Amino acid sequence: MREENISFTNPRGAVLQGVLHHPTEKNPRGAVILSHGMESNKDSDKLVFLGQSLAQFGLLVLRFDFAAAGPAGNFEEITYRGEVADLQSAFSFIGTRHDGKIGLVGSSMGGTVTLLFAARQQDIATIVTLAAPVHPERFIDRLLTPVEVRHWRATGYTFYHGRRLNAGLLEDLQEIDVPEAARRITCPVLILHGDRDDVVPVEEAHELHGYLSGPKKLSILEGGDHRFSDAAIMKRALTEAIDWICAGLD
Questions:
Q1: Which domain-ending residue is among 125, 160, 175?
Q2: Can you tell me the distance from the alpha carbon of 64 to that of 87, in angstroms, rounded to the nearest whole number?
Q3: Distances (CA, A) of 9 to 15, 20, 38, 89, 92
Q4: pLDDT of res. 132
Q5: Whose CB among 20, 66, 130, 237 lies 3.0–4.6 Å from 107's, allowing a Cys bridge?
């Protein structure tokens, strides 16, 4: 197997950095795009493991940094719609390297972005989400008081874990509709979620499962938190993800 550092440009002109995991076979039997979470990046242990493992099964795998992540990222400009556009660019890029089936794996915010993108890109073969929010707009209510929200809108920014967030995210959260997007997805979807997730309530995983009309599976990992920080739970989650993707790209 071989890893290749690559880059491509999003619609806003930003250069996104990525890594392609090439299988040993000259002709991959499928391709996969991995999307990281809000405060993560393409080099997370989870994505690196998935990239290396899926390549061992003969798949071409792309993990990349959204525009707000990585060394050159501008976290304060993060929005869901911006990341959907980034994923569209990643999808277009991998299409220049592979003309067969493409699957998607998204973690946390990256899982929601995956759902929003897949709702408008009908030729996705299969999807896995890990701890994906179905109601990211509730992020505001959980973290901020109404007074703080008004201040965010008036000043144009707030702070999250010590990092600035511009009001573009506030507007974005009030306009996207994840349930409506999920209803339009028809490809097979695996939903992985921990029952002790204190960031995205497990009820949202059950809700997502109900919206999907195609082949689907809900896997609730007992004892799992938002990051699947227990090694055994993480191993189970990633094993299920790999099995699902491989089956979906056969």
A1: 175
A2: 9
A3: 4, 16, 20, 7, 10
A4: 98
A5: 130
**Coil vs helix vs strand at 159:** strand
Site of tokens 């309530």:
201
Q: 50 is written with which tokens?
A: 């998935």
- Residues 202, 191: contact at Cβ < 8 Å? no
Number of folded domains that form the chain = 2
The pair phi, psi for residue 35, each rounded to 5°, is -120, 125
CATH code of the domain containing 124: 3.40.50.1820
What are 173-214's pLDDT values in tens digits? 989 999 999 999 999 999 999 999 999 999 999 999 999 999
Looking at the fold, whether 38 and 66 belong to one and the same domain comes out as: yes
Residue 72 has pLDDT above 80, yes or no: no
Given a contact cutoff of 8 angstroms between Cβ atoms, the answer to whether 114 and 106 are in contact is yes
Same domain, 143 and 96: no
